[in-house]
Amino acid sequence: MLLQFSVKNFLSIKDEVVFSMQASIDNENIENVFSPNSINEKILKSTAIYGANASGKTSFVKALTAAILMIRKSNLRKINEPLLDMAPFKFDLKTKDKPCKFEFIFIADNIKHVYGFSADINRVYEEYLYQYLSAKPTKIFERTDTTKYSYLQTDKNKLEELASKNTEKKLFLATATEWNYEKTKSAYMWFAEKIDTYNEYINLSDNIVDKFEKDENNELRKFTIKLLKETDIKIKDYKFETESIKSNNFIAMINDKQIPKQNIIQKEIKISTLHEIEDENGNICEYELGLAEESLGTQNLFFFSPVLKDAFEKGRIVIIDEIDRSLHPLLVKYIINLFHNPNININNAQLIFNTHDTNLLSLDIFRRDQIWFVEKDHKKGTTGLYPLDDFSVRKTENIQKGYLNGRYGAIPFVATGNNLWGD
After folding, report:
1. 314-348 per-position pLDDT tens digit
2. Looking at residue 162, what is its pLDDT?
3. Range with the lowest mean pLDDT among 105-119, 169-183, 312-326?
4. Torsion angle (degrees, nearest 10) of CA 363, 369, 372, 377
5. Distance between CA atoms of 22 and 182, rounded to whole angstroms?
6. What is the pLDDT of residues 176-212, one digit of tens each?
7. HEC states along the chain?
8. 247 pLDDT more than 90
């Protein structure tokens, strides 16, 4: 589970911003929090992030994505391969050539971890991993100036050997785990398996289509049909078909020359939905539609179903950029309530999303510590991040009205349009 994420010098985020999933002492909406057995803290099951267009909401999600992918791709990285996921703040001559910085505080295998690193397109500069094996953090390793390491003393010889196998472009967390160092494994696997970001309901790390193809016991099919039924989408069933085809038109670039490659095996996927429709005589007829013929909202829910199923079964963290895209507000509220429902979310999965849907701004749905705002300083081009909890908000307050009236900031200042054709 995620406790905290901080980022500095990435896209529009110049100064460090700190995002927390740790709950306050507020006793409202207690079903929205959980208490892990391993730490004496209350953790939020969901958070919503609001802000004007171009304020930095997507930059925040991209920061999470970049850090996660840096870790996952580290062992696959070639010596001369640039770290293209690193994108520093460019509106300042002092920061555009400095590294991006990221830090995660999370629980993996019932142990609290603190992991962070800084990197630019050329190399990793700093990296560290601490574990809370007691009340105080234990240093597993620290890395400074790219190649200088310090370690957990009991494993110093082992880690010195592993450091010699690392490169300036690779993260030691990934390298040590690849070489079977047990004390980094839980942290690395948390990044590999427990947290994902999504844009337009497309997973950035896994192939969602594969989950439908490998659904041999039809458990995903049952879950998907139930999800669509509960959200008032009248689909009886779906067909998922794949066909391997040979392509003779594939061109490979080798040494700057185009080389035709024959008999490349590719996979053609066909997904269709089945509907039961009553005709004018009262007879029930079955019709088939291609998934592409369904509404975008239906497509989004269909492809989101394996994400939800995995999250609830494995206690994963789901981060979505613009959760309300093509979905009715009631469907978004339904998804949020699934995460808050202890009978559904039995493994304490977490949902983090940004949205423009102000209908969700209700203290009946969220606690005050679950609502965050992103605001852009347009003079400096920098993004700031802060929670509703920073304000003196009464439990009976209409926070939707307060937000739209500008009380909490993070809204666009829209002109009248009268001067649209002016000089």
Report:
1. 999 999 998 988 788 899 999 999 999 999 999 99
2. 94
3. 312-326
4. 120
5. 28
6. 999 999 999 999 999 999 999 987 545 433 467 788 8
7. CEEEEEEECECCECCCEEEECECCCCCCCHHHEECCCCCCCCEECEEEEEECCCCCHHHHHHHHHHHHHHHHHHHHCCCCCCCCCCCCCCCCCCCCCCCEEEEEEEEECCEEEEEEEEECCCCEEEEEEEEECCCCCEEEEEEECCCEEEECHHHHHHHHHHHCCCCCCCCHHHHHHHCCCHHHHHHHHHHHHCEEEEECCEECCCCHHHHHHCCCCCHHHHHHHHHHHHCCCCCCEEEEEEEEEEECCEEEEECCEEEEECCEEEEEEEEEEEEEEECCCCCEEEEEEEHHHCCHHHHHHHHHHHHHHHHHHHCCEEEEECCCCCCCHHHHHHHHHHHHCCCCCCCCCEEEEECCCHHHCCCCCCCHHHEEEEEEECCCCEEEEEEHHHCCCCCCCCHHHHHHCCCCCCCCCCCCCCCCCCC
8. no
Which pair of structure tokens corresponds to residue 16? 């460090």
Cβ(212)–Cβ(305) below 8 Å: no
Sheet arrangement for strand 46-51: 202-203, 195-199, 317-321, 350-354, 46-51, 371-377, 382-387
Global pTM reads 0.90
Residue 143's DSSP bridge partners are: 127, 149
User: Nearest 5°: CA angle at 46, between 298 and 192?
Assistant: 80
Q: What is the pLDDT of residue 158?
A: 92
Q: What are the tens digits of pLDDT across the range 11-43?
A: 999 999 999 999 998 889 999 999 987 678 899
Strand partners, 318: 196, 351
For 168-174, what is the mean pLDDT?
96
Mean pLDDT of 405-422: 81
What order of strands is seen across the sheet that includes strand 284-290?
237-247, 264-278, 284-290
